[in-house]
Amino acid sequence: MAEKVRHQLFLPKPLSERLEALAAKPGASKSAILTDAVAAWLNRRGASELEDRFSIRLDRMTQAVGRVDRDTHVILETLALFIRFELSIQVPLADNDQAGRAVAAKRFEAFVQQVGRQVAAGRRTLQPSSEQQP
């Protein structure tokens, strides 16, 4: 059993009366009630300190996720506007224009391959040139 230290403390009368009422129940004592109450308070305080430590990091992460979300919306809006623009200015190919369709298929394949190379290399097209990776 742990060594016990005697404390003298003062409680407001209403709180003291509630403590007396609880301690009057069988198997209860003022010391046990106060020990449990102080332990619970200290445990909550410890949890609060952890929250204080991690809240700064969580706030930073929340801000970063917010920026990613905003950037994703900008990228998607840009892509949607570009596609709408391209579709509105491009003349549709005639059904029998096999040469035009072959050129379009080659361009699309080149585009897909370029996207694959950029992603695999970790490069971004919109990075400033000084930040471009070799």
- Which blocks of ≥5 consecutive residues have pLDDT under 50? none
Termini, distance in Å? 68 Å
How many strands in all?
0
- What composes the largest sheet? none
Tell me the helix content: over 70%
Task: Provide an overview of this structure.
The chain is mostly helical and 134 residues long. It has helices at residues 13-23, 30-89, 98-121. The model has no long low-confidence stretch (mean pLDDT 86).
Keywords:
single chain, 134 residues, mainly alpha
Describe the secondary-structure layout.
Elements lengths: L12 H11 L6 H60 L8 H24 L13
Compact summary:
The chain has helices spanning 13-23, 30-89, 98-121. The protein is mainly α.
